[in-house]
Amino acid sequence: MTSVKVDKGPEEPPAAAADTTSAEGYRRALGARQIQMIAIGGAIGTGLFLGAGKAISKAGPSLVLAYAIAGLVIFFIMRALGELLMYRPVAGSFSEYAREFVGPFAGFVTGWTYWLFWVVTGITEVTAAAQYMTFWFNIPQWVSALIFTIILYGVNLISVKLFGELEFWFSMVKVTAIVGMILICAGILTLGFSDAGDTASVTHLWADGGFFPHGIKGTLMTLQIVMFAFLAVELVGVTAGESKDPKTVLPKAINTVPWRIAVFYIGALVMILSVVPWTAFSPDVSPFVEAFQKMGLGLGAGIVNFVVLTAALSSCNSGMYSTGRMLRDLALNGQGPKVFTRLTRSGTPLVGTTVSAALMLVGVWINYQWPGDAFTYVVSFATISGMWAWIMILISQLRYRRLADRGVLPQSSFRAPGAPYTSVFALAFLGLVIVMMGIDKDARISLYCAPLWALILGVSYLVLKARNPTNKAFTGR
After folding, report:
1. Does residue 370 contact residue 31 with C-beta atoms inside 8 Å?
2. What pLDDT sits at residue 4?
3. FRET pair for 183, CA 20 to 30 Å: which of 22, 57, 147, 292?
4. Which among 224, 226, 251 has a CA at the least distance from the CA of 236?
5. Contact at 8 Å (CB) between 172 and 44?
6. Dihedral sign (CA 237, 156, 328, 354)
7. Per-residue pLDDT averaged across 7-20, rounded?
8. How far apart are CA 446 and CA 444, in angstroms?
9. Is the dihedral angle over the CA atoms 23, 27, 28, 30 positive or is it negative?
């Protein structure tokens, strides 16, 4: 195993490694193949595989429309991020851009909130993974959650290259499985094999209570679950400091967003809702696993369950990767403890990753206390904290574009099409999602927690600013 001996800081990388080391001291070890799969895998996670069950029960077939509109908004967000990344590709990009274009406090809040998002998401994903294990084994959820957390923590300490390779294969499994499932469903619809062959029909999309069986409100109430499913697509921005060729690789990865959403979300949902009526799905079970069971393909259900387990572990793995980098970015800017700046010899942020993994163990306790409700408890808070990063990306891009158009800053080589109008539309849509979360009693808890988190951050910021009054991270200069 690679040594985890820590260096004192990243400021003096060896001269010979200058071309493979970023300005922040990270190893540029992520290649195009890995970045592309990280981008694809970021769009396929527990929000789709597990959360879609509850969303189908609320919206019926109209969930397809919700994913389509939300997917368009996600593309606008990613192109806004891409414009910023090509202007200045840096690790910890969200907080860096918020700090530069909105203000020091915005950067502070964005960095710490994105860190919290991934800690909470890690808890969500390890909870989902523990639920998937019960498909095969009658073991307590908290035991599985503990084992998975420890294993992924070890992977993230070895090297970023191993993280990238693991994410590549996690994503490959997810992509292959969804494409295979779409082909099987297409075969059932056209050839009529399996238990569902006689009843499978695209008319299920409108015949069982209509396309909007619970009205427009029912569809709007799924927006929180839909947006949670898309959280992590922005992860490519965090990899900017460790990508071998960010100027080439990142735009290609971002431009794949539309077809990823079209195939993996809209295509997959249209297929399973055509083969199995939406009324046959349970809100607490993965619709993909349940679809294969109702088709009479028991082995297929087991395979899909393995895939959704892989998706959950993939997201948790990404969470551990992101949290360490975000804490280190905050520390390098004086907005976090200096101990988080330390890197191992392999270029991984040891302390930040360790602290984050330790907090993710809270998920083990949640699974022990409330094994049936654990997923619901943490999804809503993950959504509101993750959307903050999107909001900051859009606001930063709007302000950057204004400065670039005036000639104050250089133009990005990857300008967002339709901006600023697309960015304003995306901000308005995120506002609508927050309003719907306030209406939904299950999601409302996140809005209660948000002011408390804001108060903690506000007090912490004032304390740090008083201790470092001349630090540019607080003065804005």
Report:
1. no
2. 42
3. 57
4. 251
5. no
6. positive
7. 43
8. 5
9. negative
Name the pTM for this structure. Answer: 0.84
The token pair that represents 108 in the structure block: 């502070």
Residue 271 has which token pair?
């297929």
- Token pair in block for residue 446: 């996140």
Cα separation of 220 and 224, whole Å? Answer: 9
pLDDT above 50 for 17: no
Give the number of other Cβ atoms within 10 Å of residue 477's Cβ. Answer: 7
CB-based contacts of 110: which residues, under 8 Å, 6+ apart?
94, 95, 98, 99, 388, 389, 392
Distance (Å) of CA 201 to CA 83, 171, 204, 297? 43, 30, 6, 18
CB proximity list for 316: less than 8 A, separation 6 or greater: 121, 122, 125, 126, 129, 148, 149, 152, 360
The rounded distance, in Å, linking the Cα atoms of 385 and 227 is 12
298-302: long-range pairs with CB below 8 Å, 24+: 300/184, 302/135, 302/136
In whole angstroms, what is the distance from residue 402 CA to residue 380 CA? 33
Closest residue by Cα to residue 82 from 262, 255, 229: 255
The first and second tokens of residue 48, run together, are: 């789709």
Per-residue confidence (pLDDT) for residue 7, from 0 to 100: 47
